Amino acid sequence: MIFQPPPQPDLDIPALERSLELSGLTNSYKLYWFAGLIEEIKHQRTEIKFRTMVIWMITKCWHTVLRFKLNLGAQDKLNEVICFLNEKYEIKTDITESDLNTFLDELDDPEFENYIKGYIRYVPYRLLNSFYDFKDGAGYNKDSAIAEKSSKDEKVLYRINSIDLTITVNYSWFEYIYCNMPIIVGWYRYKLVEYLQRKNPNVPSVIDKIELPQERILTEARKFWKFVINTVEINDIYTNLPINTSDLSIDHFIPWSFVLHDKQWNLTPVSKHINSSKSDRLPPLEKYLDKFINQQFKAYTIALMQGPKSKVMQDYLTLGQGMDLSTGLRETEFKEIMRNTIIPLHRIAQNQGFGVWRNNN
């Protein structure tokens, strides 16, 4: 189902819809500015500083850029301020939106303020462009005209005060968005995913990378790998050492931050130290791919004994065509499917900016 803003006779809903049309988005700024507007309305605030809105923009795309490494577009500069903040203040990639927003709001840093000034020069005006009929190419004069018109317009989404650097949400629009919040949020998320998918056509699970997911639970995976270790000889593929089940951790061969799933065919048992060292980086395939696939085949043959309806076998089924769960695959067939799955994922993830791990153990 595609969410759409519900009709409202006294409001220009088509103008709101046009404001986030994909054809008019050369960068992500309007999308994340609107996300900030939603957050402020959730908190029942109508008079909002430009600075507050920009901080919401950064907060809302922080995990998308830094943890999941999605491309926001060639003309987009939000990634610059995010990289600056991360490098200078070493902010954790799994910081919550609330903590990040508070940190940025309280931050006193001239360089950071210069970034903010760059965004507020244009972004507050551009979301309202669809509400007015201005000719293209008017440049800064168009922004001035939007500010002047909006300051006296109670029908537009918000009024702009370029002197105080604030926006004031008109009450009719505040009431409309606040009362229809689930639908408006759904519509916005659809528009954001549509934009990000176009900028990242080969990246899986984009919809799950627009905010920080909840904590992963790998209890079943640990249970299965302990069973495998106690059944056949299994070594850590990164160290060639036997695995101690009391020191067992589960590594995502292709980083979880890229695939965003816990399917058995991408998991390997390792020590806690190795898992911490590798983190969200890619293993060099020339060194570890064959070891990983050999280990996976051992796990697959054991999973066959649990029957085709087991969760582990259902995970292997997601590898696609060729996965016959009733009789099992020959070793060569299984390994070919694995190679055809892992190698392209590894290449796309590396192109996306995921670094390669160099194991010094």
Order of helices and strands: HHEHHHHHHEEHHHEHEHHHH
What's the helix count?
16
Helical fraction equals 40-55%
Q: How far apart, in Å, are the first and last alpha carbons? A: 50 Å
The averaged pLDDT comes out at 89
Strand content: 5-15%
Oligomer: single chain
Give the helices and strands, then pairings:
Layout: H1 13-19, H2 29-42, E1 47-49, H3 50-66, H4 78-89, H5 97-106, H6 110-120, H7 123-126, H8 140-150, E2 158-161, E3 166-169, H9 171-179, H10 181-199, H11 219-229, E4 248-252, H12 256-259, E5 267-271, H13 272-278, H14 285-304, H15 311-317, H16 331-352
Antiparallel strand pairs: 1-3, 2-3, 4-5
Helix pairs in contact: 2-3, 2-10, 3-4, 3-5, 3-6, 14-16
Brief summary:
The chain is built from 16 helices and five strands. It has helices at residues 13-19, 29-42, 50-66, 78-89, 97-106, 110-120, 123-126, 140-150, 171-179, 181-199, 219-229, 256-259, 272-278, 285-304, 311-317, 331-352; strands at residues 47-49, 158-161, 166-169, 248-252, 267-271. The model has no long low-confidence stretch (mean pLDDT 89).
